[in-house]
Amino acid sequence: MSKSNTRRTFAIISHPDAGKTTLTEKLLLQGGAIHLAGEVKARGQARRARSDWMKIEQQRGISVTSSVMTFQKGDITFNLLDTPGHEDFSEDTYRTLTAVDSAIMVIDAAKGIEPQTRKLFEVCRMRSVPIITFINKVDREGRSPFETLDEVADALALDVVPMSWPVGMGGTFKGVLDFASGLTSIPEGDSREFLGKREKLALSEDVTDEIELAQGGYPEFSIEAYRHGDMTPAYFGSALKNFGVAELIDAISKFAPPPRPQSSDQGEVSPDRADVTGFVFKVQANMDPQHRDRIAFMRMVSGTFRRGMKLTPSGLGKPIAVHSPILFFAQDREIADTAEAGDIIGIPNHGTLRVGDTLSERNDVRFTGLPNFAPEILRRVALRDPTKTKQLRKALDDLSEEGVIQVFYPEIGAQWIVGVVGQLQLDVLISRLEAEYKVEAMLEASPFDTARWLKGTDAALKNFADFNKSNLAKDRDGDPVFMARSAWDVSYQQERNPDLTFSATKER
Fold this sequence. Notes:
GO terms for molecular function: GTP binding; GTPase activity; guanosine tetraphosphate binding; translation release factor activity, codon nonspecific; translation release factor activity, codon specific. This is Peptide chain release factor 3. By secondary structure, the chain is an alpha+beta fold. The protein is 25% helix and 31% strand. Strands 28-25-27-26-30-31-29-32 form an eight-stranded antiparallel beta sheet.
């Protein structure tokens, strides 16, 4: 078996509060990556899972950046990419989902499919990412398991196969029956957690009837249909009480695909290709505020990476030596001597690597499919202290490089404009400007409603600029952007300028 076949690179997708952060922590606990659930970072109530490290995350109890956690169980190396659960972070989440081979979809047993879950599922569907469903919080009162399974089947157009079943729910909860072994995980101890005891449970007639219906009423599991994105195996459990987590790891190990081929301008690149290739799907500045570092997260696509190897970034054109590649466990990190296809490595750099860059030994391939999206909210940035202009420019460039915001520099007027896909990103911007760059800024209303990237001949662009200079800006790459006051404005200009393309996405 090649080393890349032992990799499972996956994400967890869910609506906020469905239990994603708790499940992440329990997967790490099961994988031996941590030794104490709810590891305490401070006394009292400031308990945070290890994947949430930014100040604003700790204050609000939400994940707003994507972290990477690597752990091993048996012969399998798991790379877990933690995605922001908040609905405002679709762009960062989208980019993270370009770097995974499969996903776990967490659904609250009482609430069913919620809007953010559906949105993230659609991103997975676009990329044919196979999904395992985890129906969480079955130890509490919830809806009928059949109702939840049927909703997944109907709303998401997936074949659903239950692989386990809750024996009772809420006050009548007696454990989770695993169909493969026929054993039930039993709650024990004061907290009624699963502590490892599995046994053949005598089931009431009602529960037996339910289980027969569950096993007979849904299709048989097919690994081909699952890996094709047409079928989801469903597991019931409680992340908080540790039910169903071990079964979930086993499922990822047995069913989830090893590294998949990735699309490029040369066609699909196989993980078996001999030379090293990869792409940057995320850049994170200031993970360690003491060192003002900048880490580019690279998804390995092919080859065996060795520490000190020279790779050429597509955005730079000349090779760089990667002396200190990092493997992650949330904020903890260690130097990686080697990495295989499917692994995520962090490359420390000073602004040379950007989201969407391809890194390769031969510099003969470019990976595709990491777009920027037109912002849905635009705001002007105003400094409280006008002498901090230089620091603000640096901060906005850094944060736009990470994908937290987009920055537009108007052709007329001095105030820069930031664009985001959701309100929370603006809160993160102000918080990080202050905490990391010591810049106090305010956000003011912008006269513009949305933005479109302009493409066309030099003559067509010049002709457009002559009449629309007050609506033109450059993005941080220097590409021309039409700043529109309304959707009608976009349509009107498209009709008047058929030689130009007004694009809502920009692929890097």
